[in-house]
Amino acid sequence: QAKAAGRRTWMRYDDSMEASIRRRATLAGALHKALDRGELRVVYQPRQSLATARITGAEALLRWSSPEHGEIAPDEFIPLAEENGMILEIGEWVLREACLALQRWRQHGLGGLTMSVNMSVLQLLRGDFAGVVRRVLDDTGVPPQALELELTESVLMANAAQTALKLQAFRELGVSLAIDDFGTGYSSLAYLKRLPITTIKIDRTFIADLGHDPEGAAITTTVIAMAHGLGLNVVAEGVENQVQADFLALHHCDEIQGYWVSRPLDAMACMAFIRNRRPPAPRAAARPATPP
Ligand code: C2E
Ligand code: MG
Ligand code: MG
Ligand code: MG
C-alpha cells in the first residue's frame, strides 16, 4: 500500500518534470518566430525622484503575447532566450525599441529623461555589444548620457574579472550602468568599488519587507548609505505603497520605481504619464485656463 502510494507520487513528479521540459522546448521553438511575428513588445515603467517628485526616466521591460501560449512572463522566456543565444537578437531589438521610444518622448518636449534597458550576461560577454549600443544610439539620435544599462548582481559576480573590463567600454561610450536586483547576490564592497557602475537598484524583496521586518529596513538603509559613500545613485525597486515610499525618502534614497509610481505602460501611455507629472511650463501657465 505505502509502496504503491510512493510509486504513484514518484510517477506524478516524473510526469510533471517531463511536462516542464516539453513546455520549455515548445516555448523555445515559439520564441524563435515571436520576433518576426510581432508577438514581442516593450513596456515602460516610470522611475521617480524622491527629492523633486519628478519622473526621471523609465525602465524598458519586454513582453511576449503568444497566440498559442498566451502571455508569458520574462522570468520564464528570458532564460530560454539566453540558453539558445536568441537573447542577442532580442536584446538588440529591445534596445532599439527603447531608444526609439525615448527619442519620440524627447521630440515631444520631454527632455532630461533616462531610459534603462536590461542586459543579459550573454550580450555583455559575447561579441561587440558596445559597438551595437553605439550604432543604436547613432541611428536613433539618443545621447549616451540618456541611456542606462542594467545588469543583475549575480551576473556581475559570476564573471568578475571579465565584466569589469567589458563594462569600461560602456562607460567610455558615456552610458550609465546599474546593478539590478542588488542584495540578492554576494557582492563585496571592495569589488563594488572597482566596477565602473553609476547606479544601484535595491531588490524588491527588501522593499517588500519595509514596514514589518526590521532586517529589510536595516539592509535597505545600509545599502543606501554604502552607495552614497561610493558616490552612486540608489533606486528602490518594487515600491508598492506610501509607507515604503516615506521610509525611502526619510533615508535619502534617490529614486523609486514600482506600482506605487506606476505599472509598466506602453510607450504612448508612458509619455502621457510623464507629461502629466511635470509642472506646467511658465508659458502654458500664463495662457488662459479655457480657450476663448
Ligand atoms: P527587473 O529588471 O528587476 O524588472 C523589475 C520587475 O519588477 C519587472 O518584472 C516589473 O514589472 C516588476 N515590478 C515593477 N514594480 C513592481 C512592484 O511594485 N511590485 C512587484 N511585485 N513587481 C514590480 P517583469 O517585467 O516581469 O520582468 C522580470 C525580469 O525579466 C526583469 O527584472 C528582468 O530581469 C527580466 N527582463 C525583462 N525585460 C528584459 C529584457 O528586455 N532583457 C533582459 N535581458 N531581461 C529582461
Ligand atoms: Mg531591471
Ligand atoms: Mg530588478
Ligand atoms: Mg529581476
Automatic annotation (TrEMBL):
Residue ranges occupied by any EAL domain in the UniProt entry: 24-278
Q: Give coiled-coil spans as residue ranges.
A: none
Domain of life, per lineage = Bacteria
Q: Where is the signal peptide?
A: none
The protein in question is named Bifunctional diguanylate cyclase/phosphodiesterase
Covered range of the whole protein: 119 to 410 of 410
